[in-house]
Amino acid sequence: MFEMRLKALAKINLGLDVLRRREDGYHEVKMVMQTISLFDKITIRKTKKPGIRVKTNLFYLPENENNLVYQAAKILMDEFRIEGGVAIDLQKFIPVAAGMAGGSSDAAAVLYGMNRMFGLRLSKEGLMQRGVKIGADVPYCVMRGTALAEGIGEQLSVLPPMPKCKVLVAKPPISVSTKFVYENLKLNRDTLHPDMDALVGHIKDGDLQGIAAHMGNLLESVTIPNYPVIAKIKEEMVHAGALNSMMSGSGPTVFGLFDSEKLAQQAYRRLREGDLARQVYLADIYNVPLRRP
After folding, report:
1. What does the pLDDT look like over 76-96, one tens digit per residue?
2. What distance in Å separates the CA atoms of residue 225 and residue 230, rounded to the nearest whole number?
3. At what angle do helices 229-239 and 261-273 cross, to 10 degrees?
4. Catalytic residue positions?
5. How far is it, in rounded angstroms, from Cα 63 to Cα 55?
């Protein structure tokens, strides 16, 4: 096997709560993660020349050790003393730095692909253990599907598959610093936390209406006052028929859940024609494990 082509899928947060700031500076979270069908394309090729070469379709992305796909390849090459090298071609379609774990999913796909290509025989758990060294979201991106994430996001519990629905994704033409969001997040006795237990309960019941009603993201309390366009996109989606709409991760991407494909298509066209979002995609819930396409 000299070449492997993979899909690195995006995630959304159906719920995101921050419980406390830990002594080490990290935040303890409770999140429900869900894979969707929006994806990056990754091709990995073996090369006789040692080293790792990365090529991307976006000029502003690093093609060196600062790219998570490079870091994923290096972890396995160093540990297993892999001879020769690899060339990784990364075609990005998931919005960058947008709360959708695109970089983490790319890294997860490279871990999976190199494990197969070089016959390393690592289990999914083994890949997840190595993935956390790259980023807290990488283990989830190896696992995929519907999951409850706790700790700093690395403690994962599998949940029943999310009911099928259409997911409208829209990224406004702004950048949001994750560091800024967490530094400005206020956690005190007056903080209104989303009801994550109710959300998980509705997922276990397969109740799409209940899931939508209990979606919540505590980080919106920072982003929306500073970036009102996020609220405008949410309002536009709900007005267009979404069961609910929410920011994913630390933003600025917004998604809406639709139980009607017709309404989802209409909302997609409205956002594409407007000036609120620069990138707009229509996707599906995706619960297939990581594998070759």
Report:
1. 999 999 999 999 999 999 999
2. 9
3. 140
4. 11, 137
5. 6
CA quadruple 30, 34, 40, 41: dihedral, nearest 10: 120
Write down the pTM of the prediction: 0.94
Nearest to 135 by CA among 99, 158, 103: 103
Tell me how far apart the alpha carbons of residues 40 and 52 are, in angstroms, rounded to a whole number.
Answer: 19
The lowest-confidence range among 18-32, 54-68, 162-176, 206-220 is 18-32
HSE, CB side, 13 Å, CA atoms: give it for residue 27: 20
Measured between its terminal Cα atoms, the distance across the chain in Å is 15
Q: If you search the block for the tokens 């949001």, which residue do you land on?
A: 176
State pLDDT tens for residues 219-253: 999 999 999 999 999 999 999 999 999 999 999 99
